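Notes for week 9. Today we move from apo structures to complexes. The key idea is that a small molecule is not decoration. When we ask for a structure prediction with pyridoxal-5'-phosphate present, the ligand SMILES becomes part of the input, just like the chain. The input block below holds both the sequence and the ligand string. Read it once before you look at the output, and try to guess where the molecule might sit.
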Amino acid sequence: MIPFLDLKRLNAAYRDRLLDRWEEWMNSGQYILGEFTASFEAQWARYTGAAQAVGTANGSDAIYLLLEACKIRGHLKEGDKVLVPANTYIGSILPVLRAGLEPVPVEPDAETLNVPAEHYMQAAEKHAPRAVLAVHLYGRLAVDETLRDWAPTAGLCLLEDAAQAHGAVDPDGRKAGNLADAAAWSFYPTKNLGALGDAGAITTNDEEMAALVRQLRNYGQKQKYRSDYAGINARLDPVQAIVLELKLTDLDRLNRRRIEIAEKYAAGIRHPLVRIPIPQFDGSHVYHQFVVLSPRRDELQTYLQSRGIGTLIHYPVPPHRQGALKSLWKHYHLPLTERIHREILSLPVDPMLQNGEVERIIDLINKFDK
Ligand SMILES: *Cc1c(COP(=O)(O)O)cnc(C)c1O
């Protein structure tokens, strides 16, 4: 059996150090925010290269709070349009609705599955949006210089949904989380940097933005019992901050292993019914997921399952077909997104996989239907 992702095995390595730090935390009596949360925030800012990191309860709240901060600053107002990838995880889109904004879907590129700058530019002419939420889907960076240069000239806030791209770095050495006006992170347990529960953060070089999110995540309070804004409770728990600070020391190593596994897949998989999106092994894609596309995806998944290989589908139902968006997005024609959702399959890219296991998966795929 090769499971899709063995989180227990991955996290077991931290057990003893974690219990030590948790004991220290218990003895500190700081159960909400406090020095352990602040310490991870400082490390995460340093790691991403952004001036500020603010911990949040999860990734959805991080996106929502960035949008709310943009509203407070007058960059966005209720009902404004926000461009989002049509094929992203619905977790990118729901916070846009929660913030009272209108998400507008943009079709990706068939070879990278990310939305290129040109597609956003075309959509902007048609829809007059006020923001772009670029998503580094599956770990591949989706913000380049073209997008970064264009967004301010078009009067758009450019935000990153970096929930799948911890540690990804562009050819100029700029990291995910430091590529736009601000970025939202999720540390959901399966992400490249994962907590042992829910956790999230924002990163930004904009001090005012960071200060606003810091306030909004804590009832809109800067001073205790004085709510300047209608904030929420979306604080990063110190229990999870401790996990994240510890696991951060291994993130680069585990990302390198993910890329190594991706290289093996890309070199080894040879099958007329299995297509691999353009590979990128320079660190600008951290392979949160290694996806392939097949017109016979369901059969391929069943075949691998029957031979003990766990795979998953990210994602089985496109956002515009889901109850949450069906009526808002019923007029959009999104054929590429539909095809991607029919054909996509995620292979195991667990950094703890052994080379022999990767080779076995490649071998089985190459023998599919033969
Ligand atoms: C995980 C994820 C989210 C949501 O994060 P949560 O912590 O689960 O709220 C948002 N966008 C993307 C692309 C994600 O992968």
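The mean pLDDT is 98.
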